[in-house]
Amino acid sequence: MQVKANTMYRIIVTLSDNTERIKAVIFDHAVRQLLGMTCEELAEKEDPINTRYSLMAKEALMSIQLQHDKRMRTLKCIVNKASYPAVENIEATSSSVADATKTPAPTTLGQKGNTATGAKRQLEFDDSDPTLKRPGKRSLTN
């Protein structure tokens, strides 16, 4: 008697939400929601790799669970549910956009002393602190 294997998805992915990236594991139920087919059906397809790659760069709504891994001292991210956002009627969306208020532009703090600007953050150097050296002239370490 032959026993049939129980095939299930387990895909390791990198999720990005335009603020940060995180590695996550998507298990069978969530992948079936995204692909619309079981793992067995995918294995029987002629080109299963392209079907799996069709998930890449698509926007999806996901319900995740974070678990603290004490042994590795990291957070584990597990995707429990996943779906694609519903495409709304353009007319309904355009009327709601007209009612929306604009987000105010961020305000910058007043500048003190010498400043050095980086790609993401602005560093402020106070001339009265002798432990800090000016960038470009000397290194920040002693």
Could you characterize what this model shows?
By secondary structure, the protein is an alpha+beta fold. It has two domains: 10-85, OB fold (Dihydrolipoamide Acetyltransferase, E2P); 112-142, no CATH class. Helix content is 21%, strand content 29%. It contains four helices and six strands. It has helices at 28-35, 39-44, 48-53, 90-99; strands at residues 10-16, 21-27, 61-69, 74-83, 114-117, 122-125. Strands 1-2-4-3 form a four-stranded mixed β-sheet, covered by helices on one side. Residues 92-96 and 114-123 have low confidence and may be disordered. It comes from Helianthus annuus (Common sunflower). InterPro entries: NA-bd_OB-fold. This is Nucleic acid-binding protein.
Average pLDDT, all residues: 74
Distance between the termini: 75 Å
Number of helices: 4
* Percent of residues in helices: 10-25%
Largest sheet: 4 strands, mixed
Shape: extended
The secondary-structure element order is EEHHHEEHEE
CATH H-level superfamily of the largest domain: Nucleic acid-binding proteins
| Highest CATH level, the class of the largest domain | Mainly Beta
Radius of gyration: 25 Å
Which stretches of 5+ consecutive residues score pLDDT under 50?
92-96, 114-123
**Number of DSSP strand runs:** 6
Structural class: alpha+beta
CATH topology of the largest domain: OB fold (Dihydrolipoamide Acetyltransferase, E2P)
Shape-level CATH architecture of the largest domain = Beta Barrel
Provide the β-strand percentage band: 25-35%
User: Structurally, how many domains make up the residues?
Assistant: 2
| Side-by-side strand order of the widest sheet | 1-2-4-3
